[in-house]
């Protein structure tokens, strides 16, 4: 962090704000305040230049058509790419996970080029995965930092496949997570059968060369690549997962974990309630 005020970006909320994920920035600002840091939430609209020097970047979920505006924008404005090259922490949720990838194909079969910041591609699952999503740190990344189960709410039609450079954030213990192309959520091998599923339709199950839908046969959630953490967890997910919030904050302020954020009343109860909701 180069100034005394932590600057937390919310990128393109007009198109990536459908699912309330801008709440992640509010959570970061609140936890920063409890730590004694001033912060500012910087809304970067679709017509603003993307600043390269924010301390943390957040991008949320959106609808298939709306998210193409975000991908086009990220291909013409390389502000976020420069920030990533400089190691700035980025949290990308759902549509943003897809948009930061190499390409994605939406429910109508239309393929759109992504920003190319994540080695992932997204294809239709053929049905929407809607419901609670729980995972545990995959053990490939961040297993010391994220010791508690990750909990969120998923709502997506896309299945995101990981390439060599992208490691899974979590292994799914409930719900669908990144999913598999053409496999109705809940029916895929290794994917929990209890997840909420909307009526499906036939789409290709083909997995493009160089990409994987599972890791060691296990269903995966999200990905980690460099300073980017991407996930299908809405919630907003940082309200439900303080360890993830503190990981981003620690990286932004150059501190080591655990951060001395005082206990927030009700937060553990919220987590227990959400984790119990799947039983
Ligand atoms: N439009 C994307 C999909 O359905 C992302 C949805 C979202 O951001 N919740 O897969």
The stretches of 5 or more residues where confidence is low (pLDDT under 50) are: 188-198
N-to-C series of helices and strands: EHEEHHEHEEEEEEEEEEHHH
- What structural class is derived from the secondary structure elements? alpha/beta
Radius of gyration: 17 Å
The total strand number stands at: 14
Q: What share of the residues lie within helices?
A: 10-25%
CATH architectural name: 3-Layer(aba) Sandwich
Q: How many domains would you count in the coordinates?
A: 1
CATH topology: Rossmann fold
Question: What is the arithmetic mean of pLDDT?
Answer: 92
Main pleated-sheet profile: 8 strands, mixed
Our count of helices gives 7
> Outline, from the CA principal axes?
globular
Describe it for me?
- This protein is α/β, with parallel strands linked by helices and 279 residues long.
- It is 23% helix and 28% strand.
- The strands form two sheets. Strands 5, 6, 7, 8, 9, 10, 11 and 12 form an eight-stranded mixed sheet that branches. It has a six-stranded mixed sheet with strand order 2-1-3-4-14-13.
- Strand 5 (103-105) and strand 6 (111-113) form a beta hairpin.
- It is globular.
- Mean pLDDT is 92; it is low at 188-198.
- The structure holds glutamine (GLN).
- The site of glutamine has 12 residues, from helix 2 and strand 8.
Keywords:
binds glutamine, globular, eight-stranded mixed β-sheet, six-stranded mixed β-sheet, Rossmann fold, alpha/beta, 279 residues
